[in-house]
Specification:
Number of helices: 9
Radius of gyration: 18 Å
Distance between the termini: 34 Å
Oligomer: single chain
Number of domains: 1
Helix content: over 70%
Strand content: under 5%
Number of strands: 0
Amino acid sequence: MEPLALYLLAQFAFASSITPGPNNLMLMASGANYGLRRTLPHMLGVSLGHSFMVVMVGVALLRLFQTFPVLNAVLTVAAIGYMTWLAWKIATAVAPEAKQVTGKPFTFVQAAAFQWVNPKAWVMAITAITAYAPQEWSALAGSLLVATVFLCTNLPSITLWAVLGVQVRRFLGTARRLRVFNVTMAVLLLASLYPMLVH
């Protein structure tokens, strides 16, 4: 792969990983509610889960979606339903009079599985494979390269969001402020569905 092409792929991976989206909003909320250490499995699940998704998209799923377009509609409905439920869970993580957060942070497996209903993760994976995977390489080799670049740029990017959440927690102070923060994160998570709804 040409150095310039690799640089452009890394730039795309970094820009798409660090900008707001469902993963980053959830990690920020998790950092604020559970701290960085308890959010670590969530972070690893996002990075490794998305990298695995990139490989699968490059090797098989693009052909499957082209053959069966109805799968796109099924995925859209599943994503909307699941992310609405997640928004509710985030919004209600702190009871109005509670002194501590209820619920549990995402596990590694839950975070990895979430990538399959995360619209931004799909857009990132499909765009990266179609625009940056070397055409002269095999589908597997090209997909592995793209996934590796994403892994190297994604984990540092999402870590910043979790750390930001931890820092925000220091300023929240009370259960009421934390509740307001969680509701705001839930609303933003629902707002991130807008591009999928209009298409």
